[in-house]
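Before we proceed, please read the two lines closing this message. Tell me what the token row says about the fold.
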Amino acid sequence: MPKTDAKIPKATLKRLPLYYRFVNTLHSGNVDRISSKELSEGLKIDSATIRRDFSYFGELGKKGYGYNVSYLLNFFKTTLQQDAITKVAIIGIGNLGRALVNYNFSISDRMQIEAAFDVASQVVGEKIGDIYIEHMDQFEKIVEEMGIEVAILTVPGKIAQTSANRVTKAGIKGILNFTPERLNVPSDVQVHHIDLGVELQSLIFFMKNH
């Protein structure tokens, strides 16, 4: 468990799923232990950053030994609550929303898109994979019945805030925002913004300045 007196930086928290996936791969390959240098080389993250990230959670390794892979895997499973399935809903079934439903977080069997919503009559009632697209009129009812914990917004920017308001009022505490809008939400709601334009601009900048 993390130290109770430590405020863990967001950058560290964002790297935890990367650590988990890498350690899980090591475990699947029957690797027993790994050094911070080997972690650094495998993850392309400098070893000082890895050691600093791990330090927020107490002693995860031993000097001269490195890290026990099974211990790290169990730690990250517990910390990231990988033993529980997180149910996700997506709002807005345009091209991007449709692609995400088709993809359906196949990178992890611990997260699953369970519901999809739109207001357009031409898509409501359509089935994508195993999921029927529901009308937003049913949103609150389905969220409560299914225990949805996270919402993905792929709606037009002009209705992003209205959609976010509805999501938070339904009790959802996590939003993955694919719209260009910055959302105002209660302090107990986490929002991660995915701006593809900004990410591409950042990528091109680093390519040209490497």
